[in-house]
Design goal:
mainly alpha; about 55% helix; 3 strands; 5 helices; single chain; about 160 residues; Four Helix Bundle (Hemerythrin (Met), subunit A)
Length: about 160
């Protein structure tokens, strides 16, 4: 199997689990945070939803400069959060399906102005920065939800809430 097809299969599977977690985010608790140094529930959930776009940017761009201004999607409800996530997922799936392994071998650079933060092959960025970063924050989000008393969906198997 070509690498881009394997990445697409993983992305598609994991996006379903990520969506199940995002569906549980209670909008009446958006401002809640477990600690003063922690992100709010909303900012963490939005970050998880936004990370799907990083796959698209990694495949379609050769560099990303964080010093540039990016449009920020205004979201005020869980329904809007899910619509935002779904849109980013569909775009990323299309981009992964249409790319090829030669593109994934190209170097991708993340920088802040003239400062290079990292440069790696796109395939490595997708696995580490895009996918693993999402799984990390999705797990963090499940902890937030548990602390709020929200029933957790199964991700890799049953939870204490769903057998």
């Amino acid at each position: 199997m070509a690498l881009h097809k394997a990445l697409l299969a993983e992305f598609t599977y994991e996006a379903q689990s990520t969506r199940k977690v995002l569906e549980r985010v209670p909008q009446d608790q958006f401002s809640w945070q477990p600690h003063d140094k922690s992100m709010s529930l909303f900012h963490l959930a939005k970050h998880v939803a936004d990370l799907a776009e990083w796959t698209t940017m990694t495949v379609t761009l050769n560099e990303l400069d964080l010093s540039q201004k990016f449009p920020v999607k205004e979201i005020s409800s869980t329904a809007e959060l899910l619509a935002h996530f779904d849109e980013k997922v569909e775009t990323a799936k299309k981009v992964l399906a249409e790319t090829n392994d030669e593109v994934l071998e190209q170097i991708w650079t993340l920088k802040m102005g003239d400062h290079v933060i990292m440069s790696m092959p796109k395939k490595a960025v997708i696995r580490s920065v895009c996918f693993n970063h999402t799984y990390h924050h999705r797990g963090q989000l499940t902890v937030y939800l548990r602390l709020l008393g929200v029933a957790l969906p199964n991700i890799y198997g049953p939870t204490a809430d769903e057998q």
